[in-house]
Amino acid sequence: AVERTLSIIKPDATERNITGKVNQRLEDAGLRIVAQKRLKLTEEQAKAFYIVHKDRKFYQDLVNFMTSGPVVVQVLEGDNAIAKNREVMGATNPEEAAPGTIRADFARDIEANSVHGSDSPETAAGEIKFFFSDIEVVG
Ligand code: CMP
Question: At a CB cut-off of 8 Å and minimum separation 6, what does 123 contact?
Answer without folding.
Answer: none
